[in-house]
Write a structure and sequence with these properties.
single chain, mainly alpha, 7 helices, 2 strands, 57% helix, 5% strand
Length: 115
Amino acid sequence: MIQYTLAIDRTDDSVAHLYDPLHPAVLQLIAMTIAGAEKAGIPVSVCGEMAGDVHLTRLLLGLGIREFSMHPAHIPAVKQQGAQIRSTLYTGVAQKMLRTQEPERLQQLLAKLNA
């Protein structure tokens, strides 16, 4: 989804550096998907690299994701992050991230989530 949203091929070295799961368009797309799915009573899950990135687990939980699909090697670390959930904090920071357009500020907020 990230590759399609940003029109970036991760295997193309000339543009791979632009691949960014924290891009505001990606975060907005996830939030809109969750909102629409909740209204329709449909569960949403995240799969792939983003789901298995332990630095993004708390953000995804804060956005409302509860189902993850990832490479088995990533499961223990992601489960550990999920076990330490403080959903109120995660949700608040995730909402701030949705209102932020500045990449540096997004990184700061993500660091706050992972502190």
